[in-house]
Amino acid sequence: MLAVSLDGRLAPPEGGAAQLGGAGDRMALEQALAWADGALIGAQTLRLHGSTCLIRRPELLAERRQAGRSDQPVALVVSRSGTVEPSLAFFAQPLERWLLGPGTAPAEGFDRLLVLRPWQELLEQLANQGLKRLVLLGGARLASSLLQEGLVDEVQLTFCPQLLGGAHSWLPPGVALPRDSWELHEHRSLGEGELLLRYRRQGLPAGLA
Ligand SMILES: NC(=O)c1ccc[n+]([C@@H]2O[C@H](COP(=O)([O-])OP(=O)(O)OC[C@H]3O[C@@H](n4cnc5c(N)ncnc54)[C@H](OP(=O)(O)O)[C@@H]3O)[C@@H](O)[C@H]2O)c1
Question: Is residue 175 part of a domain?
Fold first, then answer.
């Protein structure tokens, strides 16, 4: 799920953190996190933002607690280099942190390491450890690596009333993708000119939450 400008950018031309979404998008983000067991985040997004989004709404936290779930989904940071600065605010946030990266032991600040391997295997490994519902928080390179392998079931975009221009499309230019068809599953005005669109990949088994 991503917040994008009307021209499909997720960051300004100069790069860095765009902070595109408003209050409605923040609510949609928290709802998605409340559904999730784990949240995948690209290392570069974390480096640029310094922290990740937390569920703060009391009613969402109460629902998770009632269901015997942790307050927050596990933060799953994806990195080939394995280098994430341990002084980032992220490491003081109240959540469990797993690194999907290289090495033999968790890097400083992480609770667990899952060694990188093909996505299909990693997703199975995560499911076996109880993380079946995953939300993909971006950025573009992480999203494209899963989309390229046809492993994303839903695409949720919040269109924000801005034009940013520049090169930072929500998928990097030149990425080859499977020719899946997507069905519109939801469209919702989030206020402040924002529009949420949720598409589901055609052919998914019925009953997918
Ligand atoms: N608007 C939104 O909703 C939204 C959401 C998220 C991010 N963003 C924006 O997106 C931009 C960052 O996106 P990005 O595409 O540059 O970076 P990214 O996808 O967040 O992170 C890229 C890094 O993630 C790791 N990575 C990605 N795919 C991997 C894979 N398949 N296997 C192993 N590691 C992998 C690598 O880490 P290493 O470098 O450690 O090897 C790679 O350099 C920022 O401007 C951010 O603000 C916007």
Answer: yes
